[in-house]
Amino acid sequence: MNLLDRINARQFNVAVVGLGYVGLPLAVEFAKAGITTHGIDVDPRKVESLAAGKNYIQDISDDLVADVIGRGLLSATSDFSVVADADVIYICVPTPFTPNKEPDISYILQAAESIAKHLRGGQCIILKSTTFPNTTEGYVQPILERDGKKVGIDFHLAFSPERIDPGNKTWHTTNTPIVVGGVTRECTVVAAAANRVIIEKVIEVSGPKVAEMEKLLENIFRSVNIALVNELAQLCDRMGGVNIWEVVEAAATKPFGFMPFFPGPGIGGHCILIDPYYLSWLAREHDFVTNFITLAAEVNESMPYYVQRMVLQHIAHLPVALKDAKILVFGVAFKRDVDDLRHSPALKVMELLTQDGAGRINYIDPFIPKIEIFGKTMNALDYSDELVAEADLVLITTDHTLFDYERIVANAKVVIDTRNATRKVAAGREKIHLLGDGQCIR
Ligand SMILES: NC(=O)c1ccc[n+]([C@@H]2O[C@H](COP(=O)([O-])OP(=O)(O)OC[C@H]3O[C@@H](n4cnc5c(N)ncnc54)[C@H](O)[C@@H]3O)[C@@H](O)[C@H]2O)c1
C-alpha cells in the first residue's frame, strides 16, 4: 500500500517535532484518533512531563493526555531515531526573530537536519512553523535531499500553517480549517489527507509559497487593523470627547465590510508581533519596502510607551512620588485567559515604569506565577480587596475573564483600563480611565 492509501486506511504513524503550543495539541489529536504518535522535543522537561502522563498546555485536557500516553498512543522523546518509524512528520518548532527583528529559522533548520538523518524514504514531512515564503523549498528541501533522496519521488514535503488560537473556546485544532501546499501535486494530496484525519476542513493550494504567504497575510491583516484602531484611540484621547470603544462598537453594527478590532497596550505573543517582520525582511531582498507592515509595527510597538505616559500622567496628579506610588497591575499574560508571557506588552509597561523610577509595582495574574523585570524576580500576588484599596493606581493590562472587575473598581482609587475590561461595571465609573476614551491624554 502506498502512503496515501495507508493514511486513508488509518494505517500510519505520526511524529511531531516540537511539543509546544502548536505541536502538543496536534500530537494529542492524532493519538486521540487512534494514530500512534511520537512526540519529539529537545526540551527534556517537556519530554519528562509527558512521559509521566502530565500535560503542560492549558487548552488540552489533563485526562486526555494521561489517557493517550497510558494507552501508548502518544510517546515523547528527544531521540530523533523514532522518525524512521513515522510516516508523516510534522515540524512545529519556534520561529522567533533576532534582537534586530530579522527572521531566525535556525530551529527549523536544526529540526530538518535531525529528521534528515533518520529519513527512510516514502514519508511525508509537513512544516507548520510560521515562516517566510520559500522556507520549505529553499531551505528545508535541500537538507532533506542532501543524501540523494528526491522530493516527490522518495519523500513528500508540504507547508501547512498552524492557526491555533490558545484560549479560544470555540475554534480549536480540529474545527479550524487549515491550508496546505505541497512541493508537488502528490505532496499536497498526501499532506492534505494526513491533515484530514484530524481536521474537518483542509484547503489545498498550489504550493508551499502560497501557504507560507497566506499565513503571513493572516497575521499582517491583524497587525495592521490593530494598529489602525490603536492610532485612532490615541487620536480620540488627543481630541477629547470621543470614545474609541463606542466608535468601534457602533461601526461593528454594519453587517458587511467591517470587522471590529480593539485597541490595547500593544501586541505580544509568538505570532502577530513577530511574523510580519519575516515578510518585510524578505521584501528588502527584492528592493521592496512593505510600508503597511512597518507602519503597523511602529504604532503597535509604541502602545506600551503610550500606556507608560498615561500612568505617569495620573501619578503626577497624586500626592505621592512615583518611587513611592503603589501601582497594582492586573494581567501580565500577553492576552486574555492564557498563560503565555512571550513578548507581553504588560511586561514592557512594567519595565518602562521601573526605568522611570517606579519602585512599588506589583501584579496579579493567576496564569503567571512569576515574572522577571530586569533580572529581578517578582511573584504574583493573590487578590485581596485590601491590596486594591491600598494601591495608588490600578492598571489593567490583560483582561482575564476571571478577574472581578466590579470588585476591583469598587475598591480602587484610580483604574487605568487599557482593554475596556471594566465596560460592564456600573458603579464607580468616575474612577476609570480607559485607553482611547477621549479623556486620558490631552
Ligand atoms: N502559539 C501559537 O498560538 C501559534 C499559532 C500559530 C502558529 N504558531 C507558530 O507555530 C510555531 C511553534 O510555535 P509554538 O507556540 O508552538 O512554540 P513553542 O515554543 O511553544 O514550542 C516549540 C517547541 O519546539 C521545541 N524545539 C525547538 N527546537 C527543536 C528541535 N530542533 N527539535 C525538536 N524540538 C524543538 C521547543 O523545545 C518547544 O517545546 C511557530 O512558528 C509559531 O509562529 C504558533
Characterize the structure shown.
The longest helix is centred in the middle third of the chain and has 32 residues, at 208-239. It contains 14 helices and 15 strands. It folds into two domains: 3-206, NAD(P)-binding Rossmann-like Domain (Rossmann fold, 3-Layer(aba) Sandwich); 241-434, Rossmann fold (3-Layer(aba) Sandwich). The chain is α/β, with parallel strands linked by helices and 442 residues long. The protein is elongated and about 75 Å long. Bound molecules: nicotinamide-adenine-dinucleotide (NAD).
Question: What is the gist of this entry?
Answer:
With 442 residues, the protein is α/β, with parallel strands linked by helices.
Question: What descriptors fit this protein?
Answer:
Rossmann fold; alpha/beta; 442 residues; 38% helix; 8-stranded mixed sheet; 5-stranded parallel sheet; binds nicotinamide-adenine-dinucleotide
Estimate the mean pLDDT confidence: 97
Structural class category: alpha/beta
Number of DSSP helices?
A: 14
Per DSSP E runs of 2 or more residues, the count of β-strands stands at: 15
- List the domain count as a whole number: 2
In the CATH hierarchy, what is the superfamily of the largest domain?
A: NAD(P)-binding Rossmann-like Domain
Q: CA-to-CA gap between the ends?
A: 71 Å
Helix content: 25-40%
CATH architecture of the largest domain: 3-Layer(aba) Sandwich
Largest sheet: 8 strands, mixed
| CATH overall fold name of the largest domain | Rossmann fold
In N-to-C order, the SSE pattern is: HEHEHHEEHEHEEHEHHHHEHEEEHEHEE
Q: Which kinds of small molecule does this entry bind, naming each only once?
A: nicotinamide-adenine-dinucleotide
The parts where pLDDT drops under 50 for at least 5 residues are none
Rounded to an integer, what's the Rg over CA atoms? 24 Å
CATH class of the largest domain reads: Alpha Beta
**Percent of residues in beta strands:** 5-15%
Going across the biggest sheet, name each strand in turn: 3-2-1-4-5-6-7-8
